[in-house]
Amino acid sequence: MEQVERQPHYPRPVRGYALDAAAKLEAASPHFLLKLLFSSARLRQSFFAFAAESYLDRPRDFLDRVAQYAPDVLHGLEHLDPIAQVARALILMKPRRVIEALFGSCPDGYLGLLARLGCDPQYGKETYRAAFGLFADPRNRHRAKVLGQLPGRITAEHIAVMAGLDDVLLHRAVLERTKPAEVQALNTFAEMIADLCNATPETIKHSLDKLNVGTKGVGMDEWAQGWLGRQVRLPFDPPIPASDPDFKLCLGVELTSLGRRFRNCAGQRQSYTFLGERLIYEWIRPGETAVLELLRLTSGGETKWVCEDLLGRANRRVSPELAASVQAKLDQHGILYQSLTRPSVEKLAMHRLLDHTAPFAWDGRADDADDANGDADDANGDAAIEQMLGELEQKVHGQEVA
Q: Which residues is 296 bridged to in the sheet?
């Protein structure tokens, strides 16, 4: 039978706070560091957990715990000083006993996790106790299960993310795509879609199941943006009541539809309406149609809305008559605006003199040119384009519903 040559076991360095602790133990008990350099990943990680708990500042406390969970280890060490006793105990104790002395127990799966942390100390000392909480607390059983679904090495970031995510977001795809700094934003977003999109834990889980696992360099932004089209309400009362027959508030997928029908960028405003920063309204009174964009302004506890845009199809200016009608309605609802109506001849003359252009500046010659060009374009191609966009909208809407 051919003998298999055993691979050499190389020493692995110790760094950071773990090296400081190992140096103190080495000074009290020679060759402790040499033992640590050649130890397995599981044994090294159990020592790193000890170093993270800072028991070298109170060695008697740790020795009392060792006496409780592994009393035979301390037999014959009474003549040594406390630091030397700690060093000898760490050399003689198995990783399970070390963890029991540190945390009071060693739950199933925790030693396996330590082995998957690699051979280096975790940069955050809190990592070991946070990981212990995932396995020791029965309420975190699902968190530990999701953490165990990760292939390969587990990092301190994985543990921090899994400890901080809300229950509704516990999913392998989320764990793989999320950094600790993003956890709070994801938790807040999950609460928002439950309120604004009627999302249930079941629908959120179903949407997470559609994400690919085993990905690298991919964030949760695409998943989050997919929920924007499902918005059905605002987090506050809208500035124009739903009972007003002339305005229609557009949210979620309605913005996409509005953008297709009016050939504008309304579909790109979903995040603004979701966060309540800007609102898009459609003027639906029979006759000329238009789109309004309102900006939210706050001062202390007071909130005001200002109309920043009033445009027709393809971002064309609306007629002065429609502008006057919209302005009268905005006055009723206390919404601010710059003048939407055509300025007087004197004001137009002053604007030309100063080369001044306002967001709703009116130029009769430009309006006439736009109208003439628009009429020709409408006659030549708008009907076909509208039909194509309508068919596309129906198709896409059917896919979104499915």
A: 305
State the Cα angle at 254 between 169 and 204, rounded to 5°: 10
| pTM of the complete model | 0.81
Contact between residue 55 and residue 25 where contact means Cβ atoms under 8 Å apart: no
Q: Do the Cβ atoms of 327 and 340 come closer than 8 Å?
A: yes
Instruction: State percent of the chain over pLDDT 70.
Output: 86
Extended strands (E) in 181-317: 247-250, 278-283, 290-299, 302-311
Examine the pLDDT at 400 and tell me if it is beyond 50.
no
Alpha carbon of 138 to those of 88, 105, 107, 156, 187: distances in Å?
34, 14, 10, 21, 22
How far does CA 97 lie from the centroid of its chain?
39
pLDDT for the residue 184 = 97
* Residue 277 tokens, joined: 């920063």
- β-bridge partners, 299: 302
Please tell me the distance from the alpha carbon of residue 150 to that of residue 161, in angstroms, as a whole number. Answer: 13
Residue type for position 216: K
Q: pLDDT digits over 186-198, tens only? A: 999 999 999 999 9
CA 173 centroid distance within chain: 13
pLDDT given at position 358: 62
Strand 302-311 vs strand 336-337: parallel, antiparallel, or unpaired?
parallel
DSSP 151-205: -S---HHHHHHHHHS-GGG--HHHHHH--GGGHHHHHHHHHHHHHHS---HHHHH
Closest CA to 173 of 143, 218, 109: 218
Report which of 176, 184, 140 is spatially closest to residue 155, judged by C-alpha positions. 176
